[in-house]
Design a protein that fits this description.
This protein is an alpha+beta fold. Helix content is 29%, strand content 32%. Helix 2 packs antiparallel against helix 3. The two termini are 76 Å apart.
């Protein structure tokens, strides 16, 4: 009886184990079918995962075809904004300010009235000088007529001393007229100086003189006017950079061969291009730099004098080269290199690189413009290893 129970127990356990095994195999098969995969088959999309050995034993990689372009990254310098013209207004005469015609911080045009100084005393001085001139002219007329009478009279009735005195009196009268004319002109100049006008167009700052204040030449500057449009940016170019810029454009003059832009402290690059104004005639001995001045249109007043900006210099006609993703370029003790595919195997290409920009880099030599380079799967390959390529996007693409 006991033997029959043991046999029944063993049969039950065996049946359960068989059922579990069948269930596990079925679930595994269903899982593979549900994913659309079988062991050794490539992933969906036709491209095996990087590093997985596709059929034939070749390592899967991704290649990009270089793009022929000129990256032309700008050379940057720190520049300072400066006005082309800045004028300090001063009183040329003394007197009380009768009226101030502007608001501090406003834009003024050349010729606009700014200050009026009381002019009554200066008008009176002009009238006085006019009267003095009239008297001198009357005396000159009398001296001329007197000399003519003496010269027309009988020589026997005129003493030589009287004739000499008449001639001397005429000369003195002529000098008196000239003196009166000069003093009248000075008085008229002083009268004009009672009206101070803007000599340039620009923004006027704070004034130290208000209506009723007494001003004089000794008071100093009453207000400043700063020209804002156009405006100038000055920056210093190191001697090496200056020579490299000249060499990069075949020795042409820098102003004609480059484009000059600005980057503001906020990081934005406004839509404005500078025109070369002038550069100093010699390098600064202490810094070995050459100060260069560039003029910019500034109608909106975006550039403020004494502010700092970044000057960006682009070469106008940069030569195009093959451009690849920076991820494709590796470096060892011998220098930069990249991988290409030759006869189904990874092959090293030693290259000379140029400037880089936004994740892309120029290949100056060592690579043909239409030769695909390996950009993904680099960590799994070695020179001469069989590889299978899947074409990716252009250089710099994601």
């Amino acid at each position: 009886m006991m033997m029959q129970q043991d046999e029944h127990t063993r049969e039950s356990r065996g049946a359960r184990w068989a059922g579990w095994a069948i269930t596990a195999v079925a679930l595994l098969a269903l899982g593979w079918l549900a994913r659309g995969l079988m062991p050794g088959a490539p992933a969906s999309g036709g491209r095996p995962p990087m590093g997985m050995m596709p059929p034939g034993g070749a390592t899967a990689v991704v290649t990009h075809t270089p793009e022929l372009a000129a990256l032309n990254p700008p050379t940057s310098f720190i520049g300072q904004v400066e006005p082309i013209q800045s004028v300090g207004l001063r009183a040329q005469i003394e007197g009380l300010v009768e009226k101030v015609h502007f608001q501090e911080g406003s834009l003024v045009n050349a010729g606009d009235p700014l200050f009026t100084i009381e002019s009554a005393i200066y008008k009176a001085r002009v009238a006085l000088r006019q009267a003095e001139l009239a008297g001198a002219e009357a005396e000159l007329d009398r001296a001329q007529r007197y000399l003519k009478r003496l010269e027309a009279a009988d020589a026997r009735g005129v003493l030589q001393t009287d004739l000499d005195a008449a001639r001397s009196g005429l000369l003195q009268s002529q000098a008196a007229v000239q003196q009166a004319q000069a003093t009248l002109e000075l008085a008229e100049i002083d009268l004009r100086h009672t009206r101070i006008t803007a000599p340039i167009t620009g923004r006027i700052g704070r004034t130290v003189a208000n209506t009723g204040d007494f001003v004089s030449p000794s008071l100093g500057t009453l207000a400043h006017i700063v020209q804002l449009d156009p405006i100038r940016v000055v920056f210093s170019v190191p001697d090496r950079d200056y020579l490299e810029l000249r060499e990069s454009v075949g020795g042409a003059a820098m102003p004609a061969a480059v484009r000059i832009r600005l980057r503001l402290p906020t990081g934005t690059i406004p839509n404005m291009t500078g025109s070369h104004d002038f550069e100093e005639t010699e390098m600064m001995t202490g810094t070995a730099t050459l100060p260069v001045r560039v003029r910019f249109a500034n109608p909106d007043g975006l550039l403020v004098p004494n502010g700092y900006v970044t000057v960006l210099i682009d070469k106008a006609d940069a030569k195009p080269y093959p451009v690849v993703s920076q991820a494709a370029v590796l470096t060892d003790r011998e220098g930069p290199f990249l991988y290409v595919i030759a006869e189904g195997a990874a092959q090293v290409r030693r290259v000379k690189t140029g400037p880089s920009l936004d994740g892309r880099i120029e290949i100056r030599s060592g690579l043909a413009a239409d030769e695909p380079v390996i950009v993904e799967g680099l960590q799994k390959i070695r020179p001469g290893m069989p590889v299978q390529a899947a074409v990716g996007q252009k250089a710099g693409g994601s």
